[in-house]
Design brief:
mainly alpha; MetI-like fold; 14 helices; 79% helix
């Protein structure tokens, strides 16, 4: 028994320690490629959420029995309208719109949203990280961006319409400002929440400022910045549609404006449903892409190794 105990202890002593450094965790998480994020995305499908959607449609259907069709169209009628107007809606031409359908209008709106979210996220993130580390920059930018953030975006819309006219520029700028303010706050708070011991240790070991930004600041703030981008993306769809409604020649908002003038409730609801479905789809795609970019964060949450 004594010899066996000695052998066991010796075997334990010879067992190499497993390194759990962040780089190793990242490599382990990255072996699966897109498989891990895909499993995580499907794993986040909430049955209660599906039940909520079904319940909403049922309540909608019941309400149509008590309200006239001109006030509230049926879900089936809206679905058939989406099918008939998806690629081409000839009746829109009679309202002064070019040959278009819900799909082409949605492409215009989506391209504006994605471009504006991309530009706003870039500016807001860079500004937030810089002001978190340089007090002078924060003293200059904080009053400006915080003041802009307190002004409702819809109040700025008429001014942009006057300054830049009817077109893509005024809607883009409106969404860019909205996204920039959100990402500025998220990036700044993410940098402040990062434990300073990591940067101090890196400086002690002789790391350059560029290396610290690349290996500590950016990876440490990415998860919170991603959350800010998703929040900004969710609000950007409605803001873009409202900007198009106030003054634009194309887009889902323009269709809503035109159909509202003819009290076409079914067409309005169909356009809004397409806008909502596009927002949900792009949010799901963004979640999948961000899960792939921040694989270490997904592994920590799901417990996958």
């Amino acid at each position: 028994m004594g010899d066996r105990s000695v052998k066991v202890e010796a075997g334990r002593a010879e067992t190499p320690a497993v390194s759990l450094a962040p780089a190793s965790i990242g490599r382990l998480a990255g072996r699966g490629g897109w498989a891990g994020p895909l499993r995580a995305a499907f794993g986040r499908i909430d049955p209660l959420g599906i039940f909520g959607v079904v319940l909403f449609v049922l309540v909608w259907q019941v309400m149509t029995a008590f309200l006239p069709a001109i006030s509230l169209p049926t879900p089936l009628g809206v679905a058939l309208r989406i099918k008939s107007d998806f690629w081409l809606a000839p009746e829109l031409k009679s309202y002064g719109l070019p040959d278009t359908g819900l799909f082409n209008s949605m492409v215009y709106t989506a391209s504006n949203v994605l471009l504006a979210v991309g530009l706003g996220s870039l500016f807001g993130t860079v500004a937030g990280l810089v002001t978190a580390r340089f007090e002078l920059a924060r003293s200059v930018l904080d009053p400006v961006l915080m003041t802009v953030g307190t002004i409702p975006m819809l109040v700025l819309a008429p001014f942009f319409l006057i300054w830049f006219g009817v077109g893509r520029v005024n809607a883009l700028l409106l969404v860019v400002i909205y996204v920039s303010v959100i990402l500025y706050v998220f990036a700044q708070r993410a940098a402040h929440n990062l434990d300073p011991v990591y940067e101090e240790s890196a400086y002690t070991l002789g790391a350059s400022p560029g290396r610290i930004v690349r290996d500590i600041l950016i990876p440490g703030t990415v998860p919170q910045i991603i959350g800010g981008i998703r929040i900004a993306l969710a609000g950007a769809w409605g803001l873009e549609a409202i900007a198009e409604l106030l003054g634009s020649q194309y887009g889902i908002g323009k269709i809503v404006q035109v159909l509202a003038g003819s009290t076409d409730e079914q067409g309005i609801v169909a356009a809004l449903v397409v806008l909502g479905l596009a927002a949900v789809l792009f949010d799901a795609l963004a979640s999948l892409a961000f899960s792939y970019v921040a694989k270490w964060n997904v592994s920590a949450k799901t417990g996958e190794g």
